[in-house]
Structure formats: structure tokens, C-alpha cells
Amino acid sequence: MESLRDEEQRCNLMRFFKTGEGDYGEGDEFLGLKVPQTREVAKRMSDLPLEEVPELLVNRFHEVRLCGLLILVRKFESLAKKRMERSEKCMTERDEIVGMYLHYADYANNWDLVDLSAPKIVGHWLMLPTLLGDKQTIMDELAQSNNLWRQRISMVSTWMTSRMGDPSWCLRYAEMHLHHSHDLMHKAVGWMLREMGKQVSMDLLRDFLQRHVHEMSRTTLRYAIEKMTDEERKYWMNYSPS
Fold first, then answer.
1. Among 25, 108, 177, 201, which has the minimal tally of Cβ within 10 Å of its Cβ?
2. Long-range CB contacts (< 8 A, 24+ apart) of 73-81?
3. Closest CA to 198 of 169, 149, 241, 163
4. Residue-averaged pLDDT of the chain
5. pLDDT of residue 186
6. For residue 50, how many other CB atoms are within 10 A of its CB?
């Protein structure tokens, strides 16, 4: 990955991912790789032994951490095929990947690292048999953490649960994070509500809005209603606090 360094791209990425003093990505370092390049490395290295992946997850370079996360995604997906769902061996190996992901979650310390990994690992795991323990307890611990990225994992993971037909996880964590102070969580909540409405039920989305529109940030609301008609978007925005 270091051989693929690109200085111009590195500078662009450092600006884009807010690495300046006081920003949410403060101090992060980049090599200057584009995501398809990192995906290609992860594909080539998908057979890397699981015990070696943490070396990537804690690396100082953003793209190397992403590569480690994408390798975990590939490993998890290979164990989550329909015919493998109830295999105790596959269940144990999936749980090991999820356990590793959660243990190193603090290193998924920017929105892209979370968004490209959490739904396909944690989100998919929520819909599968597990030996790890109570799923809601594990998810609530993420949501109630003081770490922004763990909180975002709890919310963005619900992209997969909604896609697979279960709206309950999205509704639970959207409500839990509704008064979050950070713009990245406002966007995540709205985005996941929009996806829940699209994938499961627009009436469920409308019901959530009916109950919470007066307390939602305008950013969350704008994201949530993005796929509605112009007329309906205007209707909901009129109820939102300025």
C-alpha cells in the first residue's frame, strides 16, 4: 500500500476527512489511495490469517485501517451465505470476526471506515444466529458509548437490518440518537431512517416523523425525507424547528 502513495491525493483526503486541529479527524494520516485501490488490496489479501488483521486495524495510515476492515468484511461475508447460517463452526468464526471488529472499533475513527464496514459485519450479524450473547445489550453498549465512532456503528449497522426487512433496530437507535450533538450523527440518523422507509415501510417512517419531527435536527429531517415528493418534503419541513 505504501508503494501506491499519491501525494496530491493525500493532501486532498486530509482536507476532505477533516484532519485539522479540532476537527473530528484530527491527526489522521493518509497515503493518498482511492477506495478502489484499497479494495483491490483487500481482495488480494482476503486469505490473510485473522490473527494478523489487527496489525492493519491499528495502523497509523487511514487506508491501511480501511484495508483491514474490508478484509474483515470479506471474511464475514464468506461465512454468512445462506447454507452456512446455522453451521456452528461458521457461527463461531463469524462471532470471532464481530468480536475483533468491536474490540478495535475505536480505530474505525472516521465516517467512511464505519460506513464501509459496520453494516456488512455488525448489521448482517444482527440478522444471523450467534453465540456471542444478547445482541441488543451489545448494540446498546455501542450506542451508549462516549465514542462517536462506536455510536455511529450502532446507527449505520441498521442499513443492513432494514435491507433485510427488520425496521426495529433502526427505529430503536434513531430514537436513542435523536438528540445527539454531532452533525455526523444527525446525518447518520436521517440516512438510516430514509433507508428504513425505502426498504421496509414509508408508513413506518411517517409514523416516526409524526412522533419526533418537532425534536429532530433539520439535518436529520432533510436526510430522512430526501426520497419523498416535493410536496411531502415541504409538509414535514414546515413542522421542523428552525
1. 201
2. 73/42, 73/116, 73/117, 73/120, 73/121, 74/42, 74/43, 74/46, 75/46, 75/50, 76/120, 76/121, 76/124, 76/125, 77/120, 77/124, 78/46, 80/124, 80/128
3. 163
4. 96
5. 98
6. 13
**What backbone phi and psi angles, to 5 degrees, belong to 61?**
-90, 130
Three-class SS state of 29: strand
Helix (H, G, I), strand (E, B) or coil at 26: coil
pTM for the structure as a whole: 0.95
- Enter the C-alpha cell of residue 33: 489511495
Place of cell 439535518: 219
**For 114-141, how does the pLDDT look when each residue is reduced to its tens digit (9 = 90+)?**
999 999 999 999 999 999 999 999 999 9
Q: Report the phi/psi class of residue 155: left, alpha or beta, with left for phi > 0 and alpha for psi in -120 to 50.
A: alpha
Residue 131: which of 99, 158, 162, 101 has the closest Cα? 99
- Asked whether 104 and 58 are in contact (CB, 8 A), the reply is yes
- What is the band of 242 on the pLDDT scale with cuts at 50, 70, 90? low
CA atoms lying within 13 Å on the CB side of residue 142: 29
DSSP secondary structure, 166-178, as one string: --HHHHHHHHHTT
Written as nine digits, the cell of 118 is 459496520
74-90 in b/e form (b: 16+ CB < 10 A) is bbbeebbeeeeeeeeeb
Q: Cell numbers at residue 7, please?
A: 501525494
